[in-house]
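Whether sequence alone determines local backbone shape is best considered at the level of individual chains. In the encoding step, the backbone of a single protein was reduced to a row of integers, each denoting a local shape. For completeness, the protein is quoted in full, as a sequence line and a line of structure tokens.
***
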Amino acid sequence: MCDKRGLVIVFTGDGKGKTTAALGLALRAWGQGLRVLVIQFVKEDLETGELKAADRLDGLEIRPLGAGFVFEDDEKGFRRHRAAAAAALGAARAALEGRGYEMVVLDEIFVALNLGLVTLDEVSALAAQKPEDVHLVLTGRGAPPEIVARADLVTEMREIKHHYRSGVGAQRGIEY
């Protein structure tokens, strides 16, 4: 029996794989005919593999709305990041209100939250406004207990071993 209720799904933790899991879920949903929007907080518009793939998949849209790496001691840059996060929040609200998608992924929203680019009240409000039949996927390190409690599914990625630790840099197709 298939239940049509939209879920709140959280991928969090210190290990690699949160965005990868969310993108896999987005691809699965797209394959089942759902319209999917991925809004990337913090990440800027670079030529990542997921952006190249989404360009070829009608009905799966990825919007990198962040401003890149955040340096908290750079006040001017921090204001730019905060403005980008506010625009991403606005896009998320519009996507949920417009009901044009059956799945909305807010990638790295917890990073934006923990850096002070968005507030817990704003993130909670998004989860509360989610239409009943829309899946909302939230990713990033440090998911707050209030969001974890509200979620239907929470997975924590835990690092056991990472190639960075042995000096191997970012790999095309793995990190980007």
Remarks:
- The helical segments are 18-31, 49-54, 75-98, 109-114, 120-129, 145-150.
- The first helix runs from residue 18 to 31.
- The beta strands are 8-13, 36-40, 60-64, 103-107, 135-139, 153-157.
- The longest strand covers residues 8-13.
